[in-house]
Q: What sequence folds into this?
C-alpha cells in the first residue's frame, strides 16, 4: 500500500462523499422548488411559503450542524485507529456514541419544539405570516432529530473506516425518496393524496430520515468493526467529547453568522428574504459539492497521523486543495452560463429573479474561497485539531464577518451587504489555517 495519497485514493473517497453530501442540500432545494411552485393566485402567498421553508430549513440545518459534531470527532478517532491498525480500541466507543447521540437528539427536540414560534418571530424576526408556516414545517421535521444525529454520527464512523460509499448509498436512497414524496405530498396525486402544502414537504423529509437511519444501522452491522457493549466508558469517550464540544462551539459560532444573514435579509423585506433563501441554499449545495474533497482530506489526514507520516499529510492537503479548486472553477462556469435557468427552477417570481442577478457576482466570489477553507477544515478535523478550528471560527466571525456586516449595513441596505460579509468570513477561514499548517507539522513531527 502506498505511503503517499494518490489521486485515485482521493477520488475513491471524494466522489462518493460528493454524491452523498449534495443530497442534503438537494433535499432543501427540492422543498424550496416544489413549495415555490405551488399553484396559487396570490404571488405573495408563494413568497411567504418559500421564505418559511428556507427559514425553517436553515434552523434545522443549524441545529443538526451544532449537535452532530460527534460525527467529526468519531471520524478522527476511527481513522487514526485504522492508521495504527487498532480497530479494537473503538469497539465499545461506537455503541456508546450512538446512545449519546440518541439522548442529544431528544434534547435538541425538547429545546426547540415547544419554543419554535418564539424562535421564528422574536429570534429570527420573521413576519407573522412567514413564522406561522415556518412553525408548521419545523414542528414536523423536529421529530427526526434523534435518528438523524445517529445517522450522521455513523457516517463519521464509515468515513473513519475510509469508506464513503455507504454514506453515499444511504443519502441517495433517502434523497430520491424525499423528492418523490415531495411531489406526492406537497402537490397531491389525484384521488390518492390531497395536496398537503408545506406540511407535506416536512412529512416527506421525516420519512426519508427514518429510512436513512435504518440503512445506516444495517451497514454498521456489516462493517469490519466488532461492536462491543460495555458499562465501562471507553477511554477515548472523553477525548471524543472534548473534540465534539470544541467543534460544537465552532459550529454554534458558524450558525450564528448564518442566522444573522437570514435576520438581516428578513429586515430588508420578504422579497429579499426569499431571494437570500434561494442563494444560500445554492451556496450550501456548492459547499457540499466541494466538501467531498474535505471529506477525503479528513479521512486521509487522520489515517496518516496514525501512521506518523508528515509527508503524506502534506500531499493530502496539496492534492485535495488542487482538486477542490478545479471543482470550484467548474461550478463558477456552470453558474455563469445557467444562472437564469437555475433561479427559474427554484422560484418563478420575477422580483426574486431580478434581485438574484444583483448578488450573483458576490456569490461567485465565494466559491474558490470555499474550496480553500473547506479543504483545510477537513484536514484539521482529521488531525483532531478541534480547539484550533473553534478558535478559527470565533476569530473569523468576530473580526471579519460581524464588523463588515454591521458597518456595511450602516451605510447601505440590501443583500450585497450580507454577501460581502460572507466573503470576508470565508477568506479568513481559509487564510489562517493555511498559514498555521506548516507550524502544526513542525510542532508535531520535529
A:
Amino acid at each position: 500500500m502506498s505511503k503517499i495519497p494518490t489521486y485515485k485514493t482521493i477520488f475513491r473517497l471524494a466522489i462518493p462523499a460528493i454524491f452523498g453530501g449534495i443530497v442534503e442540500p438537494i433535499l432543501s432545494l427540492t422543498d424550496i422548488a416544489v413549495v415555490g411552485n405551488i399553484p396559487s393566485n396570490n404571488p405573495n402567498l408563494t413568497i411567504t411559503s418559500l421564505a418559511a421553508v428556507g427559514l425553517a430549513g436553515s434552523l434545522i440545518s443549524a441545529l443538526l450542524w451544532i449537535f452532530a459534531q460527534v460525527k467529526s470527532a468519531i471520524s478522527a478517532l476511527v481513522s487514526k485507529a485504522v492508521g495504527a491498525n487498532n480497530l479494537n480500541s473503538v469497539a465499545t466507543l461506537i455503541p456508546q456514541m450512538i446512545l449519546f447521540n440518541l439522548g442529544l437528539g431528544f434534547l435538541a427536540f425538547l429545546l426547540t419544539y415547544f419554543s419554535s414560534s418564539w424562535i421564528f418571530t422574536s429570534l429570527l424576526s420573521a413576519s407573522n405570516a412567514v413564522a406561522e408556516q415556518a412553525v408548521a414545517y419545523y414542528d414536523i421535521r423536529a421529530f427526526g432529530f434523534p435518528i438523524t444525529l445517529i445517522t450522521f454520527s455513523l457516517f463519521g464512523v464509515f468515513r473513519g473506516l475510509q469508506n464513503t460509499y455507504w454514506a453515499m448509498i444511504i443519502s441517495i436512497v433517502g434523497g430520491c425518496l424525499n423528492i418523490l414524496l415531495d411531489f406526492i405530498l406537497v402537490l397531491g396525486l389525484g384521488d390518492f393524496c390531497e395536496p398537503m402544502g408545506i406540511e407535506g414537504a416536512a412529512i416527506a423529509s421525516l420519512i426519508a430520515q427514518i429510512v436513512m437511519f435504518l440503512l445506516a444501522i444495517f451497514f454498521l452491522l456489516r462493517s469490519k468493526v466488532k461492536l462491543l457493549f460495555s458499562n465501562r466508558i471507553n477511554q477515548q469517550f472523553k477525548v471524543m467529547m472534548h473534540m465534539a464540544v470544541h467543534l460544537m462551539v465552532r459550529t454554534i459560532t458558524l450558525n450564528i453568522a448564518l442566522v444573522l444573514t437570514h435576520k438581516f435579509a428578513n429586515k430588508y423585506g420578504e422579497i429579499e428574504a426569499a431571494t437570500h433563501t434561494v442563494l444560500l441554499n445554492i451556496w450550501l449545495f456548492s459547499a457540499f459539492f466541494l466538501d467531498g474533497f474535505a471529506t477525503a482530506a479528513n479521512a486521509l489526514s487522520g489515517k496518516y497521523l496514525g501512521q506518523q507520516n508528515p509527508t503524506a499529510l502534506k500531499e493530502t492537503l496539496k492534492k485535495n486543495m488542487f482538486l477542490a479548486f478545479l471543482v470550484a472553477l467548474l461550478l463558477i462556469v456552470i453558474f455563469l452560463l445557467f444562472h437564469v435557468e437555475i433561479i427559474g427552477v427554484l422560484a418563478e417570481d420575477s422580483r426574486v429573479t431580478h434581485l438574484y442577478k444583483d448578488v450573483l457576482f458576490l456569490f461567485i466570489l465565494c466559491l474558490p474561497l470555499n474550496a480553500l477553507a473547506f479543504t483545510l477544515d477537513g484536514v484539521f478535523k482529521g488531525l483532531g485539531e478541534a480547539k484550533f478550528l473553534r478558535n478559527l471560527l470565533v476569530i473569523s466571525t468576530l473580526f471579519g464577518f460581524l464588523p463588515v456586516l454591521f458597518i456595511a449595513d450602516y451605510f447601505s441596505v440590501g443583500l450585497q451587504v450580507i454577501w460581502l460579509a460572507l466573503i470576508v468570513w470565508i477568506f479568513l477561514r481559509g487564510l489562517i489555517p493555511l498559514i498555521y499548517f506548516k507550524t502544526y507539522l513542525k510542532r508535531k513531527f520535529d
Q: What stands out?
A: Residues 7-445 form one domain.
